[in-house]
Specification:
The protein is of the alpha+beta class and about 150 residues long. It has one domain: Roll (Nuclear Transport Factor 2, Chain: A). The chain contains three helices and six strands. A hairpin with a 2-residue loop joins strand 4 and strand 5.
Length: about 150
């Protein structure tokens, strides 16, 4: 009887662990696709789409060290003087936690800002949290690379 109980217990633990790994893979895949959706929305200056990806308390630290809340960040993206033509992420890594996913990676961006052409390369860290069944970005930070 003890052997049967032990086998059932071990099977349950194995299956629960396997389900958690599948869930983590699913969360990781979902959040990485949201990172790409973010780039698409930003390159099209789609404030409404970006708004839907961010928590109400979203915090953003720009590459120059300036800090923006959600409304300030969205205003910067939709500013008429900002015109990104190309934004791409590379080498993204997603680490899944119970109700959060932290994404790190590199980005390349090209466009015009206030009439001047720019090209940027940098690293970023985005923290995504699960709220009401949806993954939303709570914080983002980027650093320029030389």
């Amino acid at each position: 009887m003890k052997t049967l109980t032990l086998c059932v217990l071990l099977s349950t633990i194995f299956l629960a662990g396997h389900a958690q790994v599948d869930s983590h893979d699913s969360d990781k895949t979902r959040v990485l696709s949201l990172e790409n959706a973010w780039n698409e929305a930003e390159s099209h200056k789609d404030g409404k789409a970006l708004n839907a990806l961010l928590t109400a308390s979203f915090a953003y630290t720009d590459s120059d060290g300036s800090f923006m809340n959600k409304s300030e960040f969205l205003a910067s993206i939709t500013d008429p003087g900002y015109d990104p033509s190309h934004i791409v992420n590379e080498g993204m890594r997603a680490d899944v936690y119970e109700h959060a996913v932290v994404v790190t990676g590199r980005y390349r961006e090209e466009g015009t800002d206030k009439g001047k052409h720019y090209t940027r390369r940098g690293r970023f860290t985005d923290t995504w949290v699960q709220q009401n069944g949806a993954w939303l970005c709570a914080a983002s930070q980027e650093t320029l690379m030389k």
